[in-house]
Structure formats: C-alpha cells, structure tokens
Design a protein that fits this description.
With 138 residues, the chain is of the alpha+beta class. The chain has one domain: Gcn5-related N-acetyltransferase (GNAT) (Aminopeptidase). Helix content is 26%, strand content 25%. It has 4 helices and 5 strands. The protein is globular, with a radius of gyration of 15 Å. The chain starts with a strand and ends in a 20-residue tail after the last helix. The mean pLDDT is 92.
C-alpha cells in the first residue's frame, strides 16, 4: 500500500462526501446537504489528506489559529484502510503543522473513545455544545 499524504490539497465536496460514506462518519454528518458539505471543505484552514492514487482514503479536517488551539472536526478513514495506521499518520502530519504549544481538540464518537485514549489523547469533561436551533436570549 503506497499512501500519499498531502497538506491542504484540493478536496472536492464530492470526494469528501464519498469518503464520509466509506467511513463511519457518514451517518453523523450532513452528507445530503451539499451547501453545508462544500462550506465544510472550503472553510477549513488545515486539511491533511491521505490518497491511494487518485482516491481520497482519509482526511484530518481542522480549524485552527496554529498557536493555541486546533479543533479537529473530522478524522475520517475509508473503512477498507482502517487499522493500517492511516489515521495516526494523519494526526502526526496535522500536529506537525501546528505550533509547539497548540492543543489538538476534538469531540469523539463514543465508539472512537478507546482509539483516542490509546494514541495519547486525554479525556476532558468540559465540552459544551449549543445546537443551532437553540437560541441564547439577549
């Protein structure tokens, strides 16, 4: 297997959607909302991608200031390539783009908790989420 890793390579919404379908993230992402998916790809400021030839087989998609915090929104690996080290390499290449004090922050699916703990992440109970349909009163 000759996987090529790229930093901020062009990824189309179609390629991203297909990868999400082939990974375990497709069920938890709005893959039927093309405008949203295009915005997710277009507005990420750090994407590390894994390619098997012309096929996108993995992605680490983040938003970051590169110095203090990097929010890893998606770590998706085609199921055919899972358990082969692709995810770990995507995280290594992501960290290499960040400053020495920059934290990598993510929200994991429950089934992925043991993976992140295994590779060195620590669990933080202080995460809060406000869904868009919820309103904060003025």
């Amino acid at each position: 297997m000759n996987i090529e890793y790229k930093i901020n390579a062009s990824v189309s919404a179609e390629q991203f959607i297909e990868l999400l379908r082939q990974s375990t993230l497709g069920a938890r992402r709005p893959i039927d909302d093309r405008e949203c998916m295009e915005g997710m790809v277009k507005n990420s400021n750090l994407m590390v991608s894994a390619w098997d030839g012309e096929k996108l087989i993995g992605i680490s998609r983040s938003m970051t200031d590169f110095h203090y915090a990097c929010y890893l929104s998606d770590l998706a690996i085609d199921e055919k390539y899972q358990n082969s080290g692709v995810g770990k390499k995507l995280l290594v290449y992501t960290q290499e783009q960040l400053g020495s004090k920059c934290k990598l922050i993510l929200i994991a699916a429950p089934v992925a908790n043991s993976y992140y703990e295994h590779i060195g992440f620590t669990n933080n109970q202080r995460c809060w989420v406000l869904e868009r349909e919820q309103c904060i009163s003025k």
